[in-house]
Design a protein that fits this description.
Layout: E1 4-7, H1 11-23, E2 27-33, H2 40-44, E3 47-52, H3 63-72, E4 77-79, H4 89-97, E5 101-102, H5 107-114, H6 116-125, H7 141-151, E6 155-163, E7 166-171, H8 174-192, E8 197-201, E9 207-215, E10 221-233, E11 236-242, H9 248-264, E12 270-278, E13 281-288, H10 295-302, H11 306-314, E14 331-338, E15 340-341, E16 347-348, E17 351-352, E18 355-357, E19 364-368, E20 375-376, E21 383-391, H12 394-407, E22 409-411, H13 417-423, H14 427-430, H15 438-445, H16 447-457, E23 468-469, E24 478-485, E25 488-495, E26 510-511, E27 523-525, E28 530-535, E29 542-543, E30 548-554, E31 557-562, E32 567-572, E33 579-580, E34 585-589
Parallel strand pairs: 1-2, 1-4, 2-3, 4-5
Antiparallel strand pairs: 6-7, 6-8, 9-10, 9-12, 10-11, 11-14, 12-13, 14-21, 15-16, 17-20, 18-22, 19-21, 23-26, 24-25, 27-34, 28-30, 28-33, 29-32, 30-31, 32-34
């Protein structure tokens, strides 16, 4: 029997798991990094233990440390959430070997679907169509170019171990291949410690449709319908909805194929079969052997708690609902509220949240771990929260979402809220005629309106990496302090201290916008805070307008920096591996020589 769970994650998904455990009467142990000492999941859990420094490689990805902590604190199971160790079959097996229950799929099915190449092979064997491409890894850019002659451009170069759009680059011609292969391999190595790549035909205007499946450890598998996840930037999802606008016959074929594939590998937890759809055809893309970020909309439409289901199944229960008993009701939309600026190419925007007021009312759900005063660092992803709207039909769900977006107040960092308020009013969204290319097209068509919306939203205090101007908190009779003793977190209240509280209730400082290097000058500035992953030029190089000169890793994304004009490089002002702030000079051009007279 599972009576205590270690939650091996952070942010909103950790809080979501803790809440599910509490409803089941299960105790929880949170783990946290240096950056997450004041995170809400740490406050919500029954116990909390410091797991390591801020970098995920030294904390949330330390499998041995997490397993040892679970055993030390008498946990019976570990829930990995999504990301980090969630799809690591080796970690799942190590949990079992340590006498712990891994709340997720068994290692065997996870291994079968863990690499995209292996997953494509298993899908083909199960009679599920795949996107035309390779079933073997590619070794070089030359191999990609040769395959592209057969498949036709554009082609997608993808990490076999990838997910969430990471390790995926598109080459529209032979001239793009070298750079696409280089970036895809770097991301694959950085995020998955596996640079293996493969190639498939890139479908430029498909719909991205995924099927939610759920299996138990007794051979039963059901589906909870499909979700449309086509609204993406950089191949990462922004808005999801269910049900999708596809025909009933196609929906049935896709759901039947998803269940057939899951059953063929003995899948025994929550998972997702992702597909691309063009016309009446669908192609298997990948399987996510974990809970998805967007599981929420399936939950509200089916009235079914998927996280609690994961826990109950891991405890050995048979599925308690048949396929016939799983009946959808209404329509749901999810918007991912990220700390980033669509007006600046969706650049990540770490910083401190100064004001945070969530919307409410009928049909609105928010999964978030944010609060006023929380600092969004650059070491993790940019997700602030997930806003979900349910309605009796699609238009009611859309209108409720628009109302909720208008109520959502987040000051201190730019977010995707103003962008979504425009996007959900666009005719292509209203009529549900969009594809995976829609966000890029919409951003280009509505650039002026988007910029205006963000200029208006920036009327208050901003965060852009500048120095803090701290407002003193009003004195209180007592201060709530966080105290660590031998890595174990304790909460204590101390009376008689001036200042205020430590933790989520404290008042947030305000920040002034930093003054960076202006675009159009002699230097190419860093567009965001991050780590320099690569410098692609050196002094003396002649650079053309629009050429990629550097790559910056920020908030789990590789961001290409392009030259704003042509020129000759005078100096390279940073090194690979160096942390840079927004506006810091990366490359400086030589001043043009004065004309002779």
């Amino acid at each position: 029997m599972i009576d205590k769970v270690l939650v091996a994650n952070r942010g909103e998904i950790a809080l979501r798991i803790i809440r599910a455990c509490r409803e089941l009467g299960i105790a929880t142990l949170a783990v946290y990094s240096d950056a997450d000492r004041e995170a809400l999941h740490v406050h919500a859990a029954d116990e909390a233990v410091h797991i390591g420094p801020t970098p995920a490689s030294q904390s949330y990805l330390c499998a041995t440390r997490i397993i040892d902590t679970a055993r030390e604190y008498s946990c019976k199971a570990i829930h990995p959430g999504y990301g980090f160790l969630a799809e690591n079959a080796g970690f799942a097996r190590a949990c079992t070997d340590a006498g712990l229950t891994f709340i997720g799929p068994s290692p065997g099915p996870m291994e079968l679907m863990g690499g995209k190449l292996a997953a494509r092979a298993h899908a083909t064997a199960a009679g599920v169509p795949v996107v035309p491409g390779t079933l073997e890894p590619v070794a070089s850019a030359a191999d990609v170019k040769a395959l592209a002659l057969e498949l036709g451009y554009p082609v997608a170069i993808k990490a076999s171990a990838g997910g969430g759009g990471k390790g995926l680059k598109v080459a529209t011609s032979a001239a793009d291949v070298e750079q696409a292969v280089s970036l895809a391999a770097k991301e694959a190595q950085a995020y998955f410690a596996d640079p293996t790549l493969y190639v498939e035909r890139y479908l430029a205007h498909p719909r991205h449709i995924e099927i939610q499946i759920l299996g138990d450890r007794h051979g039963n598998v059901v589906h909870l319908g499909e979700r449309d996840c086509s609204l993406q930037r950089r191949h990462q999802k922004l808005v999801e909805e269910t049900p999708s606008r596809i025909g009933g016959a196609l929906r049935s074929r896709m759901c039947e194929a998803a269940v057939r594939l899951a059953r063929s590998i003995g899948y025994d937890s929550a998972g997702t079969i992702e597909c691309l759809v063009e016309g009446d055809e669908f192609f298997f893309l990948e399987m996510n052997a974990r809970i998805q970020v967007e599981h929420t909309i399936s939950e509200v439409v089916y009235g079914f708690d998927l996280v609690k289901a994961q826990i109950r199944i891991a405890g050995g229960e048979r599925l308690w609902r048949t396929q016939e008993q799983l009946v959808p009701r209404g329509h749901a939309i999810e918007c991912r509220i990220n700390a980033e600026s669509p007006a600046a190419g969706f650049a990540p925007a770490p910083g401190r949240i100064e004001r945070y007021i969530e919307p409410g009312g009928p049909g609105i759900r928010i999964d978030s771990a944010a609060y006023a005063g929380w600092n969004i660092g650059s070491d993790y992803d940019s997700l602030i929260g997930k806003l979900i709207a349910w309605g009796s039909d699609r238009d009611e769900a859309r209108r409720r979402m628009l109302r909720a977006l208008g109520e959502y107040q987040i000051d201190g960092v730019p977010t995707t809220v103003p962008f979504f308020a425009l996007l959900l009013e666009d005719p292509a969204f209203v009529e549900a005629t969009y594809s995976t290319a829609f966000v890029e097209d919409f951003t280009r068509r509505r650039q002026l309106e988007i910029q205006t919306a963000y200029d208006e939203a920036a009327g208050g205090p901003q965060v852009s990496g500048g120095a803090a101007v701290t407002d003193a908190a009003a004195p209180l009779d007592a201060a709530d302090l966080a105290v660590e003793v031998n890595e174990k977190l304790f909460r204590v209240r101390v009376f008689g201290l001036p200042g205020g509280t430590a933790g989520p209730s404290r008042r947030a400082p305000t920040f002034r916008t930093s003054k960076g290097v202006a675009f159009g000058g002699p230097s190419i500035p860093a567009p965001m805070h991050g780590i320099v992953a690569e410098i692609k030029v050196q002094p003396g190089d002649n650079v053309s307008d629009g050429q990629v000169v550097a790559v910056i890793e920020a908030m789990k994304m590789m961001n290409e920096v392009v030259a704003h004009r042509a020129g000759t490089v005078s100096t390279v002002d940073v090194r690979a591996g160096e942390t840079v702030e927004s506006g810091m000079a990366l490359i400086t051009f030589a001043e043009p020589s004065a004309p002779s007279v």
